[in-house]
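Q&A log
Question type: sequence-to-structure
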Amino acid sequence: MHLRPTARGVALLLAGVVLLVVGALLGADDVVQVGTVALLVVAAAVVVSALRDPGRGRARIEVARSTRPATPTAGEPATVRTLVRTPYDATGSVLVGARLHEGADEELKGGRPLAIRAARVPFGAALTSTVHPVRRGVWELGPLTVTRTDVFGVVRVRRAVGGVTAVRVWPRTVPLAAPRDTLPAEPERAALGALSPAADDAALRDYREGDDLRRVHWRTSARLGELVVRTDERSGTRPATVLLDVPVDDDALEWAIVLGCSMGLALLDAGHPVRLVVAEPDDGSAPGAAGRRDRRDAHGGRERAGAHGPAGSGAVRAAYAHPATGPEARAAVLDACVDVAPAVAEATARDALGRALRALAVVAPERELVLAVLGPLPERHRSAPDEDAGLGLDLARLAASAEGWAVVRHAPTPEDSARADLTVESLGRAGWRAVAARVGEPVERTWDRLLTEAR
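Response status: OK
Response body:
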């Protein structure tokens, strides 16, 4: 709690001290009494204000916040509702005459003042404000600052209550045409592990991580000794993985995330089970503009693509998001990129990408669709896929089992553009379909060129 006198309080204090001194020098008891009263008024105001501390006691204020939508999207406004309650004061008199100010990170306010509209409710007030998040990330909303003066206007109390609320902001996405005709949706039955020992097994396949347990066919699973799930038109579509490497440049990262998330949502709309894998380096990158990192599984099953497995080659544990789960599937794709920060060095980013490629080559189902957003590869990684080719070998191995489509991003410089073109040629030799795209190019145009030009 921050308590200090107002300008009126300071004037009253000075007047009281002067009157006391002058009255004592002149022997005027009336003047001394007036000065004493002035000082007592200020002292009483301090005591009463301290007793009515909004942070504790019977004057305590409780704060609860919610946002609509629950997870805002960068570039789109969201409504924040803050419920301010006074548990021991049904009339809310503690808030009478108080000024309320809600704090927020600049990334949530978008350079605009946070205007608050207040309405009285039983035991408190309901505050409504609009935030305009400008960047993906995890940003802080709060605390609520309560400022109040005493009845005489001589003491001002300022107290922060309610703590802060972490608001996750999804990356911006662009609606893309669902690739129903260009990317084949129906895989071969063998590619999905369909079972065919009996007629009643014709619509069953092996269980894969991320499948809805409600689709498990328990009777057949008990007979075969392993889990199998029922398939339908949607669950039989080819699974897809969107792979993003993490560049050093922040602008390149944001563009790649917008493209990758937009592609993931387009694949969901086309009926594909989708997982988004970020080849995030384990180099201690600071969150920076991406916000405060939160790697707990409670937030959309967020896990690293480059986490080492038993063999040291990495493990991709991100579950598929299925179209049947609706908003939850879209949330799982977008949550994967909320707190990704730029890589510290290109070398660590390449190492993370290599681990993710090797892991996908092991765990990805046969003929899975893999859509990657990559940066230009150095010359030694563009060589023929042999034992010394580094990423070139990893990319070729993945293309041998999966159907690979790639966007090679590059900076708007002749040198970087030339490296991207050479990378596209190298990917083509390794079995990928690829196009080069300048960072900042409209995402819709990049998606259209990938589907029409990459052959």
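Response note: The chain has four domains: 2-51, 57-169, 195-230, 238-453.
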